[in-house]
């Protein structure tokens, strides 16, 4: 049996539909009085597809509330609808490969060769921005896509080609945007970056002005003169204490699992705490999967696989991933170059009769549940491990270095929408970090001595947050956070007959936090965020109040200014250990603040900036001043070679970041310049006079180019900076039995100028045009002209009977090629 309902009032059609599908509708009569529909009714049209068609034609929301019931109500802003469209030019020709930006959830999609795009889950009554080079930007509302099969959207040519708002959104490259000084990286849509065949999270951040990396590592983010341990790096709300693979050369976060990254240098929200420098907030997919998606691939270091599987339609989905290096099985040319950089000046590089087994691995699992329209639950986990097993032997004695770093973390997050103005969040996290190093000496197969270094962290916390929309322009958010942090470290030498504890520490800290933030936003005119954060450190019996302020004002359509001020504190820090340094790898140890040796680190930061955009040009400039109190010679790395005593001090940093970008049709180029001046002052050192910080690099220039043609992407990047500060020696006294070094003033010299050129290329393709499976081949070259850069220089003497002077120079990576292949489904 089949029939066709032709332009019939919905109230008259409902009895026919109820009888055919054996269902009952629930509705208010006045809601459907004037609604008319036209649709076939037959066994080939499922109830789900019928409801989707009725929703389009009536602009009402049809929800299946039981096995035989359907409720009809008005559409609300929190509801999601399915939309599609074809984008054509004035001659009705399709416009392929252009971005369609969904403003409500800050996601993108790209049109295919027919100009077609779709989104099966977009918020009703939200804004869509469509932009293409050479055309005027189109701003649409999702409401306009109802009662049509697929919208036909025509773009008209423009002299300015793209409105200024779009230029501001795209920062470094496609997929990397900036809004109110927050740099957002959409890892599902990011273009190829210089020297990378894959979108490494932390290395992408290093391309931004104000971020330096003196040692060429991925995890070494020195944000505006601060050290890496002063950055807050979150994975789905889980605090992380170790972010590197291969001793920091690679990021420990799988970029194909992460969906987006928000990076803050200033104007930090009051909800973020426990660190005084940058904030890197990494989030994985948070939408229920409609179908099985994922990808798998390999490069010259590791292989990985990621998949996202729907479990219950529109209710539950699971994303899982695994990645492992094969460096313990196969030494590729890429691994060889990275090894030379990492193991230089260690015994691994200097000993011939040796075995070196090293690998790393990481896993992720994310469970997403949506039991109702108003509730969403996310359960996330992360695990990563680096394992080094190095052995050296002679006829009677064998030596072994076992070094393991391990990170494990979990988070559960429940979001509840009470109404269109009120949301609440409850979450909890647990993270564990372990560093375990053993230097084992055996004689004729019998254990002789074990030198051990251990550092462990157990950190768990909870949060209750609330967000309330007061009115169109006014919002308020606040909440309570709690954390319990237990950190241990120990340096132990043991033999079969005795155990000697060289140093150890075991303490915990409970912190109670309350935060409140008010925001006012009038688009294209004025934005202000005023926040306050109160921290109570229980075991230290200290309360710190942290005010935060960020404002942005549009002076004209193309020009705006901004300013921020903030006060922040940090109760965890890293010290550079020098007790057990046989291998000289992973020698940073985490510790907690106390009322004796390590004070709470406090920081003030003030910024003022301006940006201008017009006709494909974008210029951004910002100056800042930062003062850090509570640093020590242990945390700042000055205990050697200056003296062997403990000192406290402060650091004052001021600088300027400048960024200039120009877009062309298929080519874009951007250049940045940063000036940083860091001065440290310690009681009892350098006559109490200030001196440059250990990581001070005054002038940095980064210049990048990107070009796209058909399915090829090319990227070229050049980085230049002045040499890092270091302490030179003025005299070496070898007249006695022990060599005595006399040092110049602290950090009064600079290493030679550093510069490097990197290149990348990727090619995307499909074997069959209609196939949903696509492939990517990538190639990259780091340090294209093989520049030998000096990264660090230290002088020391050996503690053996054969007392010798050692010049520990660390050089950069040589020319380093890499290849990758990936399949997406």
UniProtKB/TrEMBL annotation:
InterPro entries: Beta-barrel_TonB_sf, CarboxyPept-like_regulatory, Plug_dom, Plug_dom_sf, TonB-dep_rcpt-like. It is found in: Cell outer membrane. Residues 194-279 form the TonB-dependent receptor plug domain. This is TonB-dependent receptor. GO terms for cellular component: cell outer membrane. SUPFAM superfamilies: Carboxypeptidase regulatory domain-like, Porins. GO terms for biological process: siderophore transmembrane transport. It is a multi-pass membrane protein. It holds the Pfam family Plug. One of its GO terms (molecular function) is siderophore uptake transmembrane transporter activity. It comes from Aquimarina muelleri. PANTHER family: HEMOGLOBIN AND HEMOGLOBIN-HAPTOGLOBIN-BINDING PROTEIN 1-RELATED, TONB-DEPENDENT OUTER MEMBRANE RECEPTOR. Keywords: Cell outer membrane, Membrane, Receptor, Signal, Transmembrane, Transmembrane beta strand, Transport. It comes from the Bacteria.
């Amino acid at each position: 049996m089949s029939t066709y309902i032709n332009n019939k009032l919905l109230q008259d059609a409902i009895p026919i539909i109820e009888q055919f599908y054996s269902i009952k509708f629930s509705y208010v009569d006045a809601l459907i009085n004037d609604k008319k529909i036209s649709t076939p009714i037959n066994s080939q049209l499922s109830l789900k597809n019928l409801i989707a068609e009725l929703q389009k034609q009536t602009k009402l929301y049809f929800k299946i509330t039981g096995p035989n019931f359907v409720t009809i109500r008005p559409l609300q802003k929190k509801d999601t609808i399915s939309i599609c469209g074809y984008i054509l030019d004035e001659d009705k020709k399709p416009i392929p490969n252009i971005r369609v930006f969904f403003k409500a959830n800050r996601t993108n999609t790209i049109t295919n060769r027919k100009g077609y795009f779709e989104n099966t889950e977009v918020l009703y009554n939200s804004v869509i921005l469509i932009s293409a080079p050479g055309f005027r930007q189109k701003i649409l509302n999702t409401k306009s896509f109802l009662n049509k099969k697929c919208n036909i959207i025509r773009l008209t040519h423009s002299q300015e080609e793209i409105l200024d708002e779009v230029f501001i959104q795209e920062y470094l490259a496609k997929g990397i945007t900036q809004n109110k000084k927050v740099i957002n990286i959409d890892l599902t849509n990011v273009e190829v970056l210089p020297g990378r065949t894959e979108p490494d999270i932390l290395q992408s951040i290093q391309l931004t002005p104000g971020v330096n990396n003196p040692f060429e590592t991925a995890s070494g983010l020195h944000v505006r003169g601060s050290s890496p341990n002063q950055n807050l790096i979150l994975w789905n709300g889980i605090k992380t204490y170790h972010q590197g693979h291969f001793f920091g050369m690679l990021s420990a976060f799988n970029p194909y699992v992460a969906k987006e990254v928000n990076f803050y240098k200033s104007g930090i929200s009051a909800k973020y705490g426990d660190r005084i420098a940058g904030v890197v907030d990494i989030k994985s997919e948070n939408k229920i999967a409609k179908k099985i998606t994922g990808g798998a691939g390999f490069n010259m270091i590791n292989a990985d696989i990621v998949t996202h599987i729907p479990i219950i339609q529109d209710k539950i989905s699971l994303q899982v991933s695994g990645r492992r290096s094969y460096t313990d099985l196969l030494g590729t040319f890429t691994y060889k170059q990275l090894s030379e950089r990492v193991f230089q000046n260690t015994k691994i590089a200097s000993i011939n009769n040796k075995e070196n087994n090293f690998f790393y691995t990481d896993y992720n699992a994310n469970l997403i549940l949506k039991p109702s329209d108003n509730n969403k639950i996310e359960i996330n986990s992360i695990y990563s491990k680096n394992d080094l097993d190095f052995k050296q032997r002679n006829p009677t004695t064998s030596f072994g270095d076992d070094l393991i770093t391990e990170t494990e973390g979990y988070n559960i997050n429940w979001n509840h929408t009470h109404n269109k103005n009120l949301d609440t969040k409850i979450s909890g996290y647990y993270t564990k970090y372990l560093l375990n190093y053993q230097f084992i000496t055996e004689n004729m197969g019998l254990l002789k001595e074990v030198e051990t270094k251990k550092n462990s962290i157990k950190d768990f916390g909870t949060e209750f947050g609330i967000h309330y929309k007061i009115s169109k322009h006014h919002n308020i958010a606040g909440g309570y956070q709690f954390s319990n942090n237990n950190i241990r470290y120990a340096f132990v030498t043991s033999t079969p007959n005795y155990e000697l504890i060289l140093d150890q520490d075991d303490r915990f800290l409970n912190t109670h936090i309350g935060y409140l933030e008010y925001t006012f936003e009038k688009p294209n005119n004025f934005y202000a965020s005023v926040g306050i954060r109160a921290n109570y450190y229980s075991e230290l019996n200290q309360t710190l109040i942290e005010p935060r302020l960020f404002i942005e004002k549009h002076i004209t359509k193309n020009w705006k200014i901004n300013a921020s001020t903030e006060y922040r504190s940090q109760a965890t820090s890293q010290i550079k250990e020098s007790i057990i340094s046989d291998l000289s790898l992973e020698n940073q140890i985490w510790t907690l603040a106390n009322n004796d040796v390590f004070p709470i680190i406090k920081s003030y930061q003030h910024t003022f900036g301006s940006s201008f955009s017009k006709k494909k040009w974008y210029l951004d400039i910002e100056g800042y001043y930062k003062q850090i109190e509570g640093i020590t010679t242990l945390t700042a790395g000055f205990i050697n070679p200056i003296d062997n005593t403990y000192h406290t001090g402060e650091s004052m940093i001021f600088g300027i970041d400048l960024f200039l970008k120009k877009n062309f049709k298929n080519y874009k180029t951007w250049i940045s310049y940063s000036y940083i001046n860091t001065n440290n002052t310690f009681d009892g050192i350098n006559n109490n006079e200030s001196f440059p910080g250990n990581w001070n690099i005054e002038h940095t220039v980064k210049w990048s180019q990107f070009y796209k043609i058909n399915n090829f992407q090319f990227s070229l990047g050049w980085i230049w900076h002045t040499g890092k500060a270091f302490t030179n020696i003025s005299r070496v006294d070898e007249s006695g039995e022990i060599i005595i070094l006399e040092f110049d003033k602290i950090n009064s010299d600079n290493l030679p100028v550093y510069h490097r050129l990197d290149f990348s290329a990727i090619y995307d393709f499909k074997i069959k045009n209609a196939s949903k499976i696509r492939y990517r081949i990538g190639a990259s070259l780091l340090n294209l002209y093989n520049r030998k850069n000096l990264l660090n220089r230290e002088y020391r003497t050996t503690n053996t009977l054969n007392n010798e002077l050692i010049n520990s120079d660390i050089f950069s990576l040589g020319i380093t090629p890499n290849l990758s292949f990936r399949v997406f489904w």
